[in-house]
Structure formats: structure tokens, C-alpha cells
Known about the structure:
By secondary structure, the chain is of the alpha/beta class. It has three domains: 2-150, Rossmann fold; 170-410, Aldolase class I (TIM Barrel, Alpha-Beta Barrel); 412-506. The protein is 43% helix and 16% strand.
Amino acid sequence: MKLLLTTIKSDCKKTDLCLKSIYSVITDAPVDVQLKTFGRNELYTDIFENIATGQYNIVYFHANSGNIRQLLRVADMVKKAIPSIAIIFGGMEVSFETRSFMKQNEAVDYVIRGEGESVLFNFLKSVLDYEFDFENIAGLAYRESDQVVVNPYDAPVDMESLPFPYERFEAGKGTVYYESIRGTSDRTVYSQYLPNARVRSLSLSRVCTELRYFLANEVERVVFLDRWFNYNSERAYRIFEYIINNDNGITSFEFNIDGEELDEEMLRLLSEAREGQIIFNIDLVSTNAEVLDACGRGENIYRLMYNITKLLQSGNVRTEIHIKAGLPLETEAMFARSFNKAYGMAEGMPLHIDSLFMSKGTALRANAHKYGYVYADEAPYEVIATGNMTSDELLRLRAFSRTVESFIGDGGFRKSIPRILNDTGLKPYDLFSRLTGYITRNDLAGKTRKKEHLARILYAYTAGLYDDLADPVKHEILKDVIYADLETMTGEDAMKKFDRKGWDLD
Length: 506
């Protein structure tokens, strides 16, 4: 029997590691198991040809909201070409509303719901033993007599029972993804999680042993996929302590954390880290109490903001702040206030505006009518309008978000933007709104992918602002500041090319 585990690359970071974990669990079974990940830009016809000629008996597609449509198109072609092949889908995207998913997609024979390692293992065992007792396999959905049968979810996987994925897959020198926690303490209405799934974690000793592997191999960055890594403050403290005490001068570690749970002792420890050694993603979401309450986040926003400010003051931990647009009860004016406060904390550090999606399995999707949400029927289920924001307002925010990401999403222009705000007296939201309008009116969106073009756009846009101030000297000083920022973001060759072309946008 020949089994293919496959997916198509997307923005979902978990997918690749999920496949590696499943492979590590089932690879010792008496089955020829292969793993292939296809590029997001590969033609689906080429992917179909690759799979259809591989002589597979079973194909497992790991789906997320970013690749589900492509995978279904490929699966449909494979099933039509080889009717006897067994098509299995897995991943969080198909773990909810499974029955309707299978009814709408006849090419799909089975669905692995929830955590896939033990479910797929039990499925293969049943097939290899010729038992086919699918009704006794928790977490499996299957077809029987033209009906779709959906079994209850399997029990949460014991983390310690899972092999270390990088025993079988070389980590490489770039970015690797790692999980030390399954389940999440984040119960916000837009978060996707399995019902009744408790938080489980690898032991401290095992985590340190596996991190030692990454350090010894001088991996550039280890990204923890754990949601709210510091749900257990003592455990998080010990892991941070290990990372800081065993620094190799190369490897950085990225975490998603709950900023409210940072205490003074933790902040003191983090101040000892090498600059850039630790990266935090902190989900600020909003600074509006009414919106936070509707989202299910009842934390102390002032303590959260205080902790973020302390982190930024230390300068050692790279802190990336995330807010969301289109939250329940949020108006455009509320979002503007949240953005201004977030920028005030993050000045000079990366600030991201995350889109809100109506993901399957979330409380927000189940109660979308309550807040007047209108959203796309197909993945990734973009929000089109809310009861408090029109589609035009959300479209403006979407363009606004792209501008913010281009200019400060990676911490770039960290001196130029504050300089403009100080000189003009504009608030951050107003500045980026006007900059977005300038880019749109002048059809410059296609030029926002390169830092050199962004520098030219910023200089050209601010000409009008400084004309209003009747202070051309300040604008010439700003040019030097923008140039200095550009030097920190690009290499010597890029600067030489910039100098040859100059500040002309054409």
C-alpha cells in the first residue's frame, strides 16, 4: 500500500509541521509513506499530474483556509482519474461542519477531524488488518450507504507520545516551526479551537533537549506555534531562562504570548536576553473596553499596555504588536483610537493590523447574526461588513492596513514616521489614512513592494504637508531622515542604485 501525505503551501504556519508530525507517527507502519508539499504558485494541473502518476492507494490532503479550494480542485481531478483511490482530508478547516463539507465534495472519502496523528494511525491499522471498523475510530468521518457518518472527536493527544519531528526531517539553517503546547487558553470569540480540548504541554526537560538541537545546528529562527506560550508563567520563565543562558549568538526564538501575564520577574529576566534573541507577538486586539468584552477578552488593558511599554523600554526583546479590524461592536472611530494608542506604544517597532475572518469552529461565526456580520461563503471567509461598519469603511481599513504593513509592519521607517508626526502634529491614524489616499489617487499601490519606492512615496507625499507648514527646511531634513532609514533597511548595492535614480517616482 502506498500513501501520500500532501498539502499546498499557504500562510498557515502550522500545516507543514502538522504533516511532519503525522508522518513521524505513521512512518513505521507497513505502508510506503511519502510526504510532498507543493508550492502555492504551482499549477493545480501539474499537482494533479504529479499525484495521479504516483501510483498511490491513499492520498491525505492537509487543508487550511488558505489552500482548501486548491486542494479540493486537485482532489476532484485525482478521484475522477483514479476512482479506486482513497481521498482523505484533514486539518482544522475540515474538522468543523464536517458533514456538510463531505456532502458538498463527493471526491472526499474520509475526513480526519481534530488532531490527526492517532486518528490516521488507527484508520490505517483498521485498513491493513482488513477490519474496516470505522465506526469505532474516534475523530473519523466516512461514507456508508450513501450517508456521511461523523464520529465524535478523539481524545486529546498526549504530547509526550509524539516523536520529535526533526528526528526525521532536517531542520536546516533558516526558519523552523515548533510546538510545545497543544490546545490554547485563548477563548476569544474569533479563536478556533476544538471543544473541550485541554491545554497540554511537553515536559520542560524535553523542550530544552529539543531546543538544544536547534541551537547546536545554528538554526536562524525557531518559531513557537503555541498560542499564548506563557499560559503557565513558571514554565515559560524556565524556557526563557534556558534560551538566554544557552545563547549561541545566532538563533532567535519567536513566541505568541499573553502580554497581561508578564510580571516584573519575567520582565527582568527578558532584559538579560541578547538583543533580537527573543521575539514576541502580542495580540493587543483593541484598546476599547466594550469591544474587548464582546471579544471575550476581559483582561486589564492598562496592565497589558504597561507590560508592552516595559518590554519596549528594555529594547532587548523585539516586540510586534497586533490589533484587529472589524471586531464586534467596533466602529471606524473606535478602531482609529485603538490604532493611535497602539502606535504610541510601538513607535519604532513593528505594528500589524490583522484581518478578522469568520473561521469555522469559532463562537463569532456561530453568533455572526448577533453582530450583523456579512462575510464570504468561501474560505478564508473574509468579513465584508458588520453591524457597526459598512463595506466601504472596511475596504478603507483594508487599504489602510496594507499601507501600515508596508511602512512600519517590519519596524521600517522607524525615525521618519515619528519625525513627520512631530513636525505636522498629525495623529498616526490621520497620517496613514492620508498616505493611503495619496497612494490610491496616484495609482502607486504597485510600487509599495520595494523599500526604495516606499522612501520615494513618503518623500513625495510629505511635500504637500510641509508646504502647508511653510517650512521647506524641515522637509529637506526629513529627506535625510528617510534616506538614513532606507540605509538601515537595504544593502549597499540597493543604495547605489537608489542614488543613481534619485527621488523621482517615475
